[in-house]
Amino acid sequence: MRKLSLASGVLPEFGALDVVRAGAEAGFDAVGLWVDPDSWSAADTIAAKSALRGTDLDLLDVEVVWLKPDTRLDAHRKLIDVGVELGAANVLCVSSHPDAGTTAEQLAALCRQAEGTQLRVALEFGIFTAVRDLRAALAVIERVAHPTAAVLVDPIHVDRSGTTVAEVAAIDPALLSYAQFCDAPGARPGPNDFDAVIHDAIDLRRQCGEGALPLKALLEALPADIPLSIELRSAALREAYPDPTARATAVLQATRAWLGPR
């Protein structure tokens, strides 16, 4: 049975302990946690670890390592360390470095730090970042040349970046440690309108089967056993379900209904 994880983005206004509780009560197999290195403390790690131990949940990912010209690697290294300590399978990474070489250099440093642990460093592409599409992400990972590096596929970013299902199907399965999943409207924001792109990504996602993305084809293009992080950032869901468990439950039920017996 395919592992389904509650992405932290489903509950952006709630803390890590609320996400763990909601994921467990809703019946997810795993959760993802948002870790802000500026505010996350050793006490937060202890509390999150305890909360996870009290459930049957796996920790699929922690996020986000956002590589930026004005951010030192030390902050990102802290997130790697927290992910390792919590037993996360992945850390999500995006980059705003205009130079792909710098992205590769810093990603390689983080991969070396995670070497020998359970953690994969997954590079997400999207038109809101400097790594705008799958081709660019794979080029960076080729330069990194480290087994810890992975590529993260999210249907909304696949669609908005012009990446094709065929390109997704051609990814080396060894580079896919997990994937994100959601649906979205067919109308695409202007690729150079950053505010519209962000609004699309954090407010307008839809439940699986309720949008216009080629989800069935994308699911078939991915490895059959790949874990799915249900990354359903939606203003409509936040308004309809202010309670975190109710929201998580609605997301899981809709996802399972769409997946069916597969």
Automatic annotation (TrEMBL):
Keyword Isomerase belongs to the record: yes
TM helices/strands, residue ranges: none
Pfam families assigned: AP_endonuc_2
Molecular function, one GO term: isomerase activity
Alphabetized UniProt keyword annotations: Isomerase
InterPro entries, alphabetized: IolE/XylAMocC-like, Xyl_isomerase-like_sf, Xyl_isomerase-like_TIM-brl
Residue intervals of the Xylose isomerase-like TIM barrel domain: 21-240
Protein name: Sugar phosphate isomerase/epimerase
Taxonomic source organism: Novosphingobium chloroacetimidivorans
Source taxonomy: Bacteria, Pseudomonadati, Pseudomonadota, Alphaproteobacteria, Sphingomonadales
